[in-house]
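Support case: magnesium ion complex. Customer-provided input:
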Amino acid sequence: MLYREAGDFKTTYVADMQTFPIRGERILFWLFVAFCFAVVPFFITGYWEKSILVPFLVWSMIALGLNILTGYCGQVSLGTGGFMAVGAFACYKLTTAFPELNIVLVIILSGAVTAGVGMLFGLPSLRIKGFYLAVATLAAQFFLVWCFNKFGWFYNYSASGQISMPTRTLFGVAVTGPDAPPWATYLVSLTFVFVFAWVARNLTRGRLGRSWMAMRDMDIAAQIMGISPFNAKLSAFAISSFYVGMGGAMFFAIYLGAAEVTEAFGIDKSFDALFMIIIGGLGSILGSFLGAAFIVVFPVFLKNVMVGGLGWSTDLAAHVEIMTVGALIIFFLIVEPHGLAQIWRLTKEKLRLWPFPY
Amino acid sequence: MNRAVDPRELKVHRDDGVAKGDVLLEVKDVSLRFGGVKAITKISFDVRKGEIRAIIGPNGAGKTSMLNVINGFYTPQEGTITFRGVERRAMRTTDAARQGIARTFQNIALFKGMTTLDNIMTGRITLQKSNLFAQAVWRGPALREELEHRHRVEEIIDFLEIQHIRKVPVGRLPYGLQKRVELGRALAAEPALLLLDEPMAGMNLEEKEDMSRFILDVNSQFGTTIALIEHDMGVVMDISDRVVVLDYGRKIGDGSPEEVSKNQDVIDAYLGVPHE
Ligand SMILES: Nc1ncnc2c1ncn2[C@@H]1O[C@H](COP(=O)(O)OP(=O)(O)OP(=O)(O)O)[C@@H](O)[C@H]1O
Ligand SMILES: [Mg+2]
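Agent response - structure generated as follows:
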């Protein structure tokens, strides 16, 4: 009797805590995942890989990372580009020093190195907040980029100052370097993002996630409930940087193939990441994906429609892009701070009630 | 009364090693200044285990400051606090929480972006132990722990009759309900000492009656010791065992509600007799 009751409670709470509580939605989600893993690789072209899918996935990883820090824990960061660079250079150093090391491991270790660096640059957050913290992380951005430029050790003293990714294989298939087939780079990126999005979801719904959100919403009350700002903020910096570092490593190793630090990891990357989470939705896993999709896909779309379709000049298209993104950021900041994810949620609620809105 | 959960099931499992009726908290000669402002001057009083202790006084008397001293948020310039037999002056607020002091705030300090459920779950954060990797996979120990705490939190939700707002972000709730959620969050920590700063401020009569009932139930059913600040004298007379009265940062009365209400200094303070 007792046993059954306990079992009952468990199933109900577990069911209650599901990511997709509605069965239909769950089925759709898994169908979509199956499609991404089992169908897309057969049809993916070089164009789709390089212009849309791989950058989307890599940026999703980075946006997830920044969203943990800014969306969940409320610590603004303008250092994302710098932390991506840490991931990229860690990946380069590791894979050139230990060519035998599995690429998956290299990327994860690059994330770990970035987590350490991120924690270090997160220390000021224990003293300062908001705008001042943003400036401190901006300093991190410039310092890190300067560092990777200044010391030849980081780029193995290459004459061009560039780092370039050698070919690395996984199960005998090249996943980095010029010969990597589109389906392989796509599948590696997809697997990484899928696994770590799931981890992010788990971390944000448990104790750690609640300690971050408590810090974000009311730091004094959080302390009075026994949440140490040191643990909460630094763990957010560490885990966020872990994601951003892995993203940076993937950005360099899988997407770019070769990189020059000021060009690949400049301040514009920090802003891109910030725009993604604002437009997608602060404090939302789904929002990180929607924001990344928007910032990556929208310019491609505009280019195809305006330059390809309407015959406008590329310059004009670029300006229209900047203006639209800018307008949207203002729109979301004022009208819908929870971003596209919230719009998606509301639409779903309407659909569920339709046609009887009671 | 019709409740899903018998509050008696909700035992405080934090054994504070103090017998009922003994001194749980002793405040001794505490003074607190902000620059030139003397918020508290040489105040001493105690809170006994199992009682409801009211702290009253006119606006600016130093009541909130007193609670802030008790839970380590302010460090007094003079005096000592002894909680569960351990004496201290300066401490970190997080340590006060771990020793079993929980509180609510005069101006609600809920986590606005989080749901009712998450807010109350946050109250149990010091009781949760699972490590990063267990949390990352959301299986085994982390999930078991989460469910165990969820179970407790659901009991509190039933007790406070707030099942219907479980999944609502608290920022969207009306004031009275927010106060109730905040009580739930403090209760979730299973505190040895519960500090309530004006739990009924801004409520209508019905809400006040509900809140009084909850406070009395918490005290009698869970055996939680409560120190509360309240302006409504009717409520104070009804629910408190002993009252301490502050005025301009000094203690001017201490005793049972009847004693205090007959105290001439207290009457003067409330009627606004000018200070010489
Ligand atoms: N952080 C602070 N800095 C400076 N002065 C403060 C601070 N906190 C409180 N005070 C002052 O200390 C005195 C006591 O304030 P406190 O908030 O403890 O009063 P209270 O009894 O809670 O009043 P109320 O009934 O209005 O809540 C007031 O004069 C107040 O201005
Ligand atoms: Mg007060």
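Confidence is low (pLDDT under 50) at residues 1-13 of chain B.

Case will auto-close in a few days if no follow-up is received.
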